[in-house]
Amino acid sequence: MSISEQHTLTQAQQKAATEAAYRARRKARKHELVELHKAVVAAENAKKPKTPFLIAFRSRRLRRDGIVETLPQEFARILKACEELITNKKRFPALYAWGGDGVNNIQCRTNIARVLACILVNTDLIGGRIGEPTEAGIKTISWDQVQEDYALRFGEYIAPKSFAKALKYLRRAGYLHCERINVNVNEEEGAVRSAPAYKQLTERFFSDLKVVRYPNIVELILATRQRQESKGLRFKWLSFRDIAKKVQEIYNGKKLDGYAEATASIFQAFSPTPAFTPH
């Protein structure tokens, strides 16, 4: 959209147009990752035609750079537990008890199982925090990022509504808790921006998952944590203050970019008058 067109739109129309363009970019990105999944799987199958290569509920992860990495051993059993939900509607008792009629539908259970698998590979299995561990602490991640992981893991695009429906079932079962992060970045303008929410899998979920309470699996999880901590990673949430600071920095940067674009528009609208030289 050109600057002249932006000036003719109302603020609400500009916001709607911006959000529509943003959604389109996110959707296109996920389709790119679906194609990446297909290309990687095809390449692996070409190496070993007799052994079909799968990611899905296997203890692997396809990274965004196209590299397949093996997850820690405990994930083989954990992801298998997710897959069991597809054929066993009672695999997760609270989900069966509180999920409603939808849990009786195998397509609904497949959707939940897949989303759950994508969440778990981004989860601190000791504390239940869903995010990315760093040296500063666990960074929150967006649901959009988990949807991208879905494309990489299953080679399919999941519609945001289908993803949201799976989350609804997890919340209804008492398995998932989220706390929004809203930051007032400009009191005068009343501007509020958000960061990816704090997301947590509950004790109730892990009790129903069961496998993370088996002594041999607990041993593996603790060994993985020890290796990660030896690399300097911390497994406490980043504080609200740290997250808010980053949101403020992004807002300030975008606001200054807006000023720069407005200034540049003067030059874009300028048409120099051709200079005639006497013969």
What does it look like?
The chain is an alpha+beta fold and 279 residues long. The chain has a domain at 23-175 and 204-238. It is built from ten helices and six strands; from the N terminus they run ααββαααββααββααα. The chain has helices spanning 3-8, 11-47, 74-87, 93-98, 106-120, 143-154, 160-172, 203-209, 215-230, 240-269; strands spanning 60-62, 68-70, 131-133, 138-140, 176-186, 191-201. A two-stranded antiparallel sheet has the order 1-2. The chain has a two-stranded antiparallel ribbon with strand order 3-4. A two-stranded antiparallel sheet has the order 5-6. β5 (176-186) and β6 form a beta hairpin. It is globular. The two termini are 43 Å apart. Residues 1-21 are annotated as: Disordered. It comes from Vibrio parahaemolyticus. This is Replication protein. Keywords: Plasmid. Residues 8-21 have a biased composition (Low complexity).
Name the descriptors.
10 helices, 279 residues, two-stranded antiparallel ribbon, Replication protein, plasmid, alpha+beta, 56% helix
